[in-house]
Amino acid sequence: MPIEIIRTDITRLPVQAIVNAANPGLLGGGGVDGAIHRAAGPQLLAACRSLPEVSPGVRCPTGEARITAGYALPAAHVIHTVGPVWQGGRRGEAALLESCYRACMRLCRELALASVAFPAISCGVYGYPPEQAAPLAIATLRDELAAQPSLRVLLCCFDAAMEAVMRAAFSRA
CA-CA distance, 9 to 22, in Å (whole number)? Predict the structure, then answer.
């Protein structure tokens, strides 16, 4: 099934899982992370707090993913992933961002999910340039879809600018 690019509020999508561009502590924050926590309700924060810390204050290291229920969201699950903070592109940011998408897709496979929606991971406050993140996301998701071609993948864009970047990258891929 092809990748779909849409512009909407990810917290309103009736998919089996939405991906949360989270911080390592998984305790909510700004941007999409805060919106997901607000829409899911306080149970999401409680579920995240119950996940074990792998180091002080870190429940999910950069490039990895964890899953919880979706609680008050239309999505049954929230897949939390921590993207890299942009530091100029010479500190492994691309490999870490690719790892985020792969880790999320691995969880989708393990749970045999039929649909998942991704935000533009790391393109908000983490500063990853969308023009560099979008082609990497699309290429990685296409590669991962070879192992699960029936999975419906939505790239959810919050605004017209991100949608334009995603569509341009998709048309070049």
Answer: 16
Model confidence pLDDT, tens digit, residues 105-119 = 999 999 999 999 999
Distance CA 29, CA 173 (A): 32
**Number of independent structural domains in the chain:** 1
Residue 84: domain span: 3-172
34: helix, strand or coil: helix
Dihedral (C-alpha) 147, 81, 43, 56: value to the nearest 10 degrees? 130
- Please identify every residue annotated as catalytic: 33
Distances (CA, A) of 108 to 18, 102, 118, 162: 10, 10, 12, 24
pLDDT at 74 over 90: yes
